[in-house]
Amino acid sequence: AAAGGGGGGVAAAAAAAAAMKKVGVVLVRHGETRYNKAKLLQGQGVDEPLSQFGFKQAEAAGKFLSNIKFTHVFSSDLQRAKQTASTIVLKNSHGSKLEIICDARLRERKYGIVEGKPLNELRAMAKAAGQKCPFFTPPGAETVDEVQARAEDFFNHLCQLLMKITEKDSAPEQLDKVADDSGDSHTSQKNPSCVDLNGSDINDDNSDTPVVNVLIVSHGGFIRQWVRHFVEDLQCLLPQSFDESKVFSVCPNTAVSSFTLTFNQVVSSSPSIICNNLYNCSHLDGITL
User: Fold this and answer.
1) Distance between CA 47 and CA 68 in Å, rounded?
2) Helix axis angle, 52-64 to 79-90, nearest 10°
3) Are strands 256-264 and 99-102 parallel, antiparallel or unpaired?
4) Active site residues
5) In Å, what is the CA distance from 7 to each residue of 3, 14, 16?
6) What share of the chain is helix, strand, coil (3-state, %, to 5)?
7) Model's pTM, two decimal places?
8) Listed residue (256, 251, 247, 210) closest to 84, CA to CA
């Protein structure tokens, strides 16, 4: 009887482990533009392409991430983000045939009347209003709460997709594209194969291996609110070595942040989240024009 009980416990533990599905999420800020270099605000109204240096940063990020087998790629629909995502995907050692799904929810914060103007002008306006710059809302701009609401909306949308994926035992790597509700698509090469948002190459033999790896390319203001949501609302665990005073700072161009999300397929709830790296720029060492 004791042996039977032990076997039941092992079986229960195995079932519980099988119900836990891990997903890797890599979040990257776009490469540098001329406006970044000149400290001019872009927001949504200035759709500036990457500079030559920005492309070099994106290539370095692509090499840094080249061994990750991405199953899904999302990008802001602004060109500096799309160009960064394309460059990263083209450098991937597992192939460059993934389609990049563009989503307007991943856009930079809208800065209203100060778009195209120096950052110092925004700082001066905030000081005159007696507010800290990150929380000041110039006329015509989004509030930081509105940006965070976009981040939360996109993350909830992503979680729904990921839950559908992890519920499947297996799926072909390349399926017909499912149209995204909120954006268009941007391919990384002339004749790409498409990837279904609800299907991927799932390896669930090892519960410690992410069943899906997602790349997201966005902007500094958006990423700050995404991280705030993760840390303050979802109790994301940060790397022990990270300086917590810098958690809500604006990350540098092409800085890489990576997270492991664990979904419980038995209990429907928000995933547990661990931050593996935050604003990692080691791939930029030695990068020059």
Assistant:
1) 29
2) 40
3) unpaired
4) 30, 108
5) 6, 10, 14
6) 40, 20, 45
7) 0.83
8) 256
Give which of 110, 131, 114 is closest to 122, Cα–Cα: 114
53 contact partners, CB below 8 Å, separation of at least 6: 31, 32, 37, 287, 289
Amino acid identity of 178?
A: V
Residue 81 structure tokens? 């983000």
Per-residue pLDDT tens for 128-172?
Answer: 999 999 899 999 999 999 999 999 999 999 999 988 887 763 343
Between 268 and 119, the higher pLDDT residue: 119
Query: In sequence order, what DSSP letters do the residues of 161-181 get, joined into one string?
Result: HHHHHHHSS---SS-PPPPPS
pLDDT at 268 (0 to 100): 63
- Alpha-carbon distance of 177 to 187, in angstroms, equals 12
Strand order across the 20-29 sheet: 185-187, 99-102, 72-75, 212-218, 20-29, 256-264, 272-280
The DSSP result for 214-276, as a single string, is EEEEE-HHHHHHHHHIIIIIS-PBPPTTS-GGGTTSPPPTT-EEEEEEEEESSS-SPPEEEEE
Element (H, E) at 8: helix 2-18
Which residues are within 8 A (CB) of 98 and not within 5 positions of it... i.e. 6 or more apart? 70, 71, 72, 73, 89, 92, 188, 192, 195
Top mean pLDDT of 4-18, 187-201, 242-256 is at: 242-256
Determine contact, residues 223/29, Cβ cutoff 8 Å: yes
pLDDT at site 163: 86
Q: Which residues contact 207 (CB under 8 A, 6 or more apart)?
A: 17, 18, 20, 21, 22
